[in-house]
Fold each of these.
Amino acid sequence: MILTLFAVVVVLVLVAFVRYHFQDDSKSRSPGIGLEDLKALNIKHDVHSAFMTLVNDEGAGSWPPRATHDGFPPALRPYRQIYAAMAPFLATANPSLDDEYNRIRCQEFRSRMQALLTEKVDIQAARSTLEIVQSGNWDAFPRDAYNGFYSCIACLRHAYRWATNPVVKVAQDEKKLCFPFELDMPWSYLQRRFNITSPCGNVMSNAICNLDPQGQIVYPINEGMSDVVRSTELAWCRLFYDMESMAIPIYCAMIQAIIAFERGDKNLCLTYINTGFINLRRVMQFVYEKMNDPNIARAAWVRHVSGIHSWGLTLETDDPPVEYGGLSGSQALLFMAVDAFLGINRYHSDSELKMDVSGNMRDVAATFRRYSFRKQLSEKSEYDIAIENSLKRMVNQLRSFRAVHKVRAVRYLSAPAPERLPMTAALSVLPSQGEEKLAVESYKSIDGMLTKRLNETV
Ligand code: HEM
Ligand SMILES: *[C@@H]1O[C@H](CO)[C@@H](O)[C@H](O)[C@H]1NC(C)=O
């Protein structure tokens, strides 16, 4: 009896462990709003097919995307090994304030990586492998492994870019940097695959696809650092992953609401909007809770996690020169999709969007926008008024997210980091520099920008 109980407990624990990726789906799911329901939905509608294309193609059959890191084709395996070999040299607990020392440290890191790339990568073989996938043959390189490779190359590029973590002023002062051919060549294939133009990584490549199926980081930026630093790095990656995972019922509800509206079934439409609202509130509460000390430790995050995900270089080829930013929460599908569904102005311009947001994700957001029915609602119809009121509840959830995020963002960014100039991931180096008080000043422009966005959320 005791043994049986023990066995049951063991099985339950194992199931809980293996189900890491599904934790949020199973909890409070309303009928008809899971990914499986959406796959089974026998319907022809642009908004449904755009989402299913995202899931099947870039998502490798799931959402958030599946990414695996053990099954790269042989010619591409050295890249993962090189990351693993370089990781111990990347992080440091106490960055130096001496520019000359830092310059040498960065130089050494880069030459070491270049030497490994030259030695281990057979560039012709690597190129042929990528060429085969580009021609549409995925047999030897399944999409989940391709997503893992996307993360691998993006993380190698960010490691090469900053060459030490926390990032230091001498690296921030660089505005141009020549990358090893072994990193530029695969990145050009990845850019075409995801239809993006940026030389740097994004939330998908650096955070979401950087987790293995057990939810652990594959390409760490803080190897050998303290528990609080490493747990902050992990919590930050998982926040984006979990948020997208919890967003599935919202995407499904919005798709169903659009279809119900077009069929004139306003009652059903209202039901789905309410489901969307309830799930949006859940996700937002989850984000408020996680985007906070101690889950994401403020002091650790700003120095040891945020900087290396920025970019701050301009490309020779761009005319006029464009400075590339790096990661931003604004690249998460959830916000683009919900804004679009509610008919709220877009946050990114077309060209910004094309830099870092993949083609399939752009299509999903654009399709939600095309079928957004909020502007068609009439003030004379009781049903329409009820629908608008429900949509307004979703808007208000976004507003409170933006109000909370604005305060937290500035609080996080103004934590001290004397080895560098004030910066944000997406916006790079900011005007003033120095002590914490001055830093708060230099984040005024960001506060203004986020306030503007808050005011557009109506
Ligand atoms: C933890 C510290 C964080 C800081 C310091 C921060 C900072 C910023 C900054 C400076 C911007 C404006 C520049 C840009 O476009 O990227 C921004 C935008 C944005 N961030 Fe964050 N962010 C943080 C976390 C998050 C998280 C966890 C999420 C989502 C889960 C998120 C979602 C967004 C969104 C959606 C925008 C676009 C503006 C908007 O829609 O209001 N951020 N963030
Ligand atoms: C890439 O994106 C652009 C702009 O969004 C689009 O016009 C083009 O068709 C896309 N290319 C592919 C191959 O999907």
Amino acid sequence: MKEIIMVKKRKADGEPCRKCLQVEEQLRDRGLLDRIDRIVWAVENEPASEGMVMAERLGVEIAPFFIVSENNQEKVYLSSLQFIKKELEPGAENRKAPEVPPAVELADELAGKSPLTVIDRALSLYGEECAISFSGAEDVALIEMAVQTGKPFSVFSLDTGRLHPETYRFIDRVRKHYGITIRIASPDREALEAFVGEKGLYSFYEDGHKECCTVRKVEPLKRVLSGYKAWITGQRKDQNPSTRGLLEMVQKDVFTGKGGGNLMKFNPLADWTQAQVWSFIRSHGVPYNELHDRGYVSIGCEPCTRPQQPGEHERASRWWWEEGTKRECGLHK
Ligand code: SF4
């Protein structure tokens, strides 16, 4: 006989873990909570509590998690999305995909809507064929919201090879925190070796960042995006009024996606300010890059990012030796 157990955490202060409550809420909203046979508590300061014993036995360090037992075999799921997909809604990916309205209609429909509503709509239309591009603080807020929708989604990150060690640790922390898969895309080896062989490792200080960004970011991005139909970015209008002031919530991208058509691009935070993003991060316990506590605001590659200077605009701390209108890496056209 099959038994499905959900293990939830109760913190030492007696409060239930917020993420466990969110996941439970998603299951309830989707009419799936009844499919869980037992909910078990792991009480943080009580190692003998049933959930803590299970976590110890299975070597699990995050909550919630799910155990599916059948025919003397156990399967453990650390990701609620994977659990839902494999155990509660198998075959959901084979259902007919909903029809996607034209970008202008979607833009009209979603104008003025909250980021969560925009993300929910994007994932309803595209599911795992929609990817969140993850590098900065805004992007983890997007991941948090995507998790809140309870719908499937994908995440990728570009490893330029020049990121701060703190950023690599941050990416892995996010992966563990949400129990998600993050696809890491690297530059093409041949293109990179040819570029570095000819121009060295710091040519961007002499003749601009465009060439290096093309090899390390733009080309890998195009390769990754060719596997999706839509993507979600953390761009905001207020990041750089010279280049992002007219940013739209939904737009047809210039990049080609899966099947050869242009990707649909969602910018759910377009109308948010930096302060709103940070308020969301703090109130939802969203992980962030430790460099933010050391004065960094917009974080990219290590040689091209510096802490924000007094009175400086946020994107001014990227490629600070170049003109403001050129401070984009080519990922967003
Ligand atoms: S941000 Fe700097 S190091 Fe990174 S890809 Fe662009 S130019 Fe190269």
